[in-house]
Amino acid sequence: MDLDRARPVWPQIADDLRRRLDAGEWKAGERFPGAVALAAEYEVTQSTTQKAVVALREEGRLRTVLGAGSYVV
């Protein structure tokens, strides 16, 4: 994915993750990649990917279990 660095990056990543979720890349109940793995994949900082994950969690697409990670709803 080519990120447009002229605008905020985390919403672009959140959009891409939504698209991938909708395409069935991760199934309900499956563990979602962590911020470190996503940061490496998108070549951004962990805080950037964490913002995207928080947005998906707030939308009800993910649930986070403290100490265990995020899971697809």
TrEMBL record:
Q: Where is the HTH gntR-type domain?
A: 7-73
Q: State the PROSITE patterns in the record.
A: HTH_GNTR (PS50949)
Q: Which domain of life is it from?
A: Bacteria
Identify the keywords attached in UniProt to this record, alphabetized. Answer: DNA-binding, Transcription, Transcription regulation
Which SUPFAM superfamilies does this one have? Winged helix' DNA-binding domain (SSF46785)
User: One Pfam family, short name please?
Assistant: GntR
InterPro entries noted in UniProt: Bact_HTH_transcr_reg (IPR050679), Tscrpt_reg_HTH_GntR (IPR000524), WH-like_DNA-bd_sf (IPR036388), WH_DNA-bd_sf (IPR036390)
What is the name listed in the Swiss-Prot or TrEMBL entry for this protein?
Answer: GntR family transcriptional regulator
Please tell me the species this chain comes from.
Streptomyces chiangmaiensis
Lineage of origin: Bacteria, Bacillati, Actinomycetota, Actinomycetes, Kitasatosporales
